[in-house]
């Protein structure tokens, strides 16, 4: 029987999640807040932690980093906050957006517990040096597959399960806008989170990204720098309550 730890500062939410998951034959424990969870982990190791993102002591990303620095227990975030792309790159094992049904929650838990392979990221850029840079930074923490344009990316997506796509804007054959629009119109790819990375500040501010439900648009240099800090943070233990470096959003 898999052991689950539920972490939330709201007692009503904890009670609802516990009822939903205990019915699926899990051994469930609940705690209110990240600090209490970290204390419990000193004496008990679950198979999976489900945590809220917005908690008073620390947010979900800071909590995940502290857990990984100590126990390496997978953490799934359950939250009203829409940050699935950032969660993947910060090493979170799963992300469920509230509101969620009991069946959806159980299915998400089963996916994470049943995962035997690592997370695959798709990098789409016509610059081979940029693709090589992403691969150097992201592997071996992630499996990285590459495409030089949108058409090649769609071909890869049809053959490889991908957790996140990192997409350039200006590319030959099929550009970033055309690729993401094609993804959103295809039931197989429409829910894949997309991060748009570009050296074109004007393109990064374009309103089309909102229409295409892009998780974030980021300038390439800032994104690469941010990724480096995340890899460093993953390798080095985190002192308690250390602030997480902000996701490098482009102001529109």
From TrEMBL:
One of its GO terms (biological process) is phosphorelay signal transduction system. The keyword Phosphoprotein applies. It comes from the Bacteria. CDD domains: REC. The modification 4-aspartylphosphate is found at residues 52, 168. PROSITE patterns: RESPONSE_REGULATORY (PS50110). The keyword Phosphoprotein applies. Residues 3-113, 120-235 form the Response regulatory domain. It holds the Pfam family Response_reg. Keywords: Phosphoprotein. This is Response regulatory domain-containing protein. It comes from Sorangium cellulosum.
